[in-house]
Amino acid sequence: MNNTEKITKELNEFCENIEKWFRGNEKDQEALFKKILSGFSPDFKMINGDGNTATLSMFSEWLPTVFGKFPERSVQIENIQIHHSEHHGLATYTEIQTTEDVTNRRKSSAVFVLNAEKALWFHLVENWI
Fold first, then answer.
1. Phi-psi region for residue 52, left (φ > 0), alpha (ψ -120 to 50) or beta?
2. Residue 46 is part of a domain; what is its CATH number?
3. Which residues sit opposite 46 in a β-bridge?
4. Across residues 81-103, what is the average pLDDT?
5. Hey, which residues does 119 pair with through a beta bridge?
6. Which residue range(s) make up the domain with 122?
7. pLDDT tens digit string along 20-72?
8. What total of structural domains would you count in the chain?
Protein backbone atom coordinates (compact mmCIF):
# COMPACT_ATOMS: atom_id res chain seq x y z
CA MET A 1 0.00 0.00 0.00
CA ASN A 2 1.42 3.41 -0.92
CA ASN A 3 1.37 6.42 1.41
CA THR A 4 -1.69 8.03 -0.18
CA GLU A 5 -3.60 4.77 0.26
CA LYS A 6 -2.50 4.50 3.91
CA ILE A 7 -3.80 7.99 4.69
CA THR A 8 -7.03 7.45 2.77
CA LYS A 9 -7.62 4.16 4.57
CA GLU A 10 -7.07 5.73 8.00
CA LEU A 11 -9.40 8.66 7.25
CA ASN A 12 -12.17 6.36 6.03
CA GLU A 13 -11.78 3.83 8.83
CA PHE A 14 -11.79 6.56 11.47
CA CYS A 15 -15.02 8.06 10.11
CA GLU A 16 -16.65 4.64 9.96
CA ASN A 17 -15.52 3.74 13.49
CA ILE A 18 -16.33 7.06 15.15
CA GLU A 19 -19.81 6.89 13.61
CA LYS A 20 -20.25 3.41 15.12
CA TRP A 21 -19.00 4.79 18.44
CA PHE A 22 -21.43 7.72 18.44
CA ARG A 23 -24.32 5.41 17.51
CA GLY A 24 -23.39 2.87 20.18
CA ASN A 25 -24.56 -0.12 18.17
CA GLU A 26 -21.24 -1.97 18.30
CA LYS A 27 -21.44 -5.06 20.51
CA ASP A 28 -17.78 -5.04 21.56
CA GLN A 29 -17.23 -1.51 22.85
CA GLU A 30 -13.71 -2.27 24.14
CA ALA A 31 -12.55 -3.67 20.78
CA LEU A 32 -13.92 -0.63 18.94
CA PHE A 33 -12.26 1.71 21.47
CA LYS A 34 -8.91 0.00 20.89
CA LYS A 35 -9.41 0.03 17.12
CA ILE A 36 -10.11 3.77 17.12
CA LEU A 37 -7.09 4.60 19.31
CA SER A 38 -4.76 2.30 17.35
CA GLY A 39 -4.81 4.84 14.53
CA PHE A 40 -3.16 7.56 16.63
CA SER A 41 0.44 8.41 17.44
CA PRO A 42 1.06 8.59 21.22
CA ASP A 43 2.10 12.21 20.59
CA PHE A 44 -1.21 13.16 18.91
CA LYS A 45 -2.61 16.63 19.52
CA MET A 46 -5.53 18.46 18.02
CA ILE A 47 -7.12 21.89 17.94
CA ASN A 48 -10.87 21.52 17.69
CA GLY A 49 -13.33 23.85 15.98
CA ASP A 50 -13.73 25.88 19.16
CA GLY A 51 -9.97 26.50 19.34
CA ASN A 52 -9.38 24.14 22.26
CA THR A 53 -6.34 21.86 22.30
CA ALA A 54 -6.63 18.17 23.16
CA THR A 55 -4.05 15.43 23.53
CA LEU A 56 -4.50 11.73 22.86
CA SER A 57 -5.03 11.20 26.58
CA MET A 58 -7.82 13.78 26.65
CA PHE A 59 -9.41 12.28 23.53
CA SER A 60 -9.21 8.80 25.12
CA GLU A 61 -10.97 10.07 28.24
CA TRP A 62 -13.66 11.86 26.20
CA LEU A 63 -14.56 8.89 23.97
CA PRO A 64 -16.36 6.82 26.66
CA THR A 65 -18.58 9.81 27.49
CA VAL A 66 -20.08 9.84 23.98
CA PHE A 67 -20.50 6.10 23.29
CA GLY A 68 -24.08 5.68 22.07
CA LYS A 69 -24.93 9.32 22.76
CA PHE A 70 -25.87 10.06 19.14
CA PRO A 71 -27.68 7.00 17.72
CA GLU A 72 -28.70 8.83 14.53
CA ARG A 73 -25.37 10.56 13.77
CA SER A 74 -23.64 10.07 10.45
CA VAL A 75 -20.03 11.08 9.83
CA GLN A 76 -18.75 11.66 6.30
CA ILE A 77 -15.75 13.29 4.69
CA GLU A 78 -15.39 14.88 1.28
CA ASN A 79 -13.01 17.06 -0.74
CA ILE A 80 -10.02 15.02 0.44
CA GLN A 81 -6.60 16.22 -0.70
CA ILE A 82 -3.46 14.35 0.30
CA HIS A 83 0.21 15.28 0.04
CA HIS A 84 3.05 13.27 1.52
CA SER A 85 6.75 12.74 1.79
CA GLU A 86 8.38 9.44 2.65
CA HIS A 87 7.55 9.61 6.37
CA HIS A 88 4.79 12.22 6.80
CA GLY A 89 1.50 13.08 5.16
CA LEU A 90 -0.91 15.99 5.13
CA ALA A 91 -4.60 15.53 4.41
CA THR A 92 -7.14 18.31 4.09
CA TYR A 93 -10.83 17.49 3.97
CA THR A 94 -14.32 18.58 4.92
CA GLU A 95 -16.02 16.58 7.66
CA ILE A 96 -19.80 16.52 7.81
CA GLN A 97 -21.61 15.28 10.92
CA THR A 98 -25.38 15.00 10.71
CA THR A 99 -27.55 14.23 13.74
CA GLU A 100 -31.25 14.05 12.91
CA ASP A 101 -31.83 17.35 11.05
CA VAL A 102 -28.76 19.24 12.32
CA THR A 103 -25.62 19.25 10.16
CA ASN A 104 -22.21 20.50 11.30
CA ARG A 105 -19.34 20.99 8.88
CA ARG A 106 -15.70 21.58 9.54
CA LYS A 107 -12.67 22.06 7.33
CA SER A 108 -9.84 19.98 8.72
CA SER A 109 -6.17 19.41 8.12
CA ALA A 110 -4.36 16.42 9.55
CA VAL A 111 -0.69 15.50 9.70
CA PHE A 112 0.06 11.78 9.71
CA VAL A 113 3.22 9.88 10.62
CA LEU A 114 3.75 7.07 8.11
CA ASN A 115 5.28 3.71 8.88
CA ALA A 116 5.52 0.49 6.87
CA GLU A 117 2.01 -0.64 7.84
CA LYS A 118 -0.15 2.45 8.23
CA ALA A 119 -0.69 6.16 8.72
CA LEU A 120 -1.00 7.41 12.31
CA TRP A 121 -2.79 10.63 13.25
CA PHE A 122 -0.18 13.07 14.61
CA HIS A 123 -1.83 16.51 14.53
CA LEU A 124 -5.33 17.67 13.62
CA VAL A 125 -6.74 21.17 13.20
CA GLU A 126 -10.50 21.63 12.75
CA ASN A 127 -12.28 24.84 11.74
CA TRP A 128 -16.06 25.24 11.76
CA ILE A 129 -17.60 26.16 8.43
1. beta
2. 3.10.450.50
3. 54, 124
4. 97
5. 114
6. 3-128
7. 999 999 999 999 999 999 999 999 999 999 999 999 999 999 999 999 999 99
8. 1
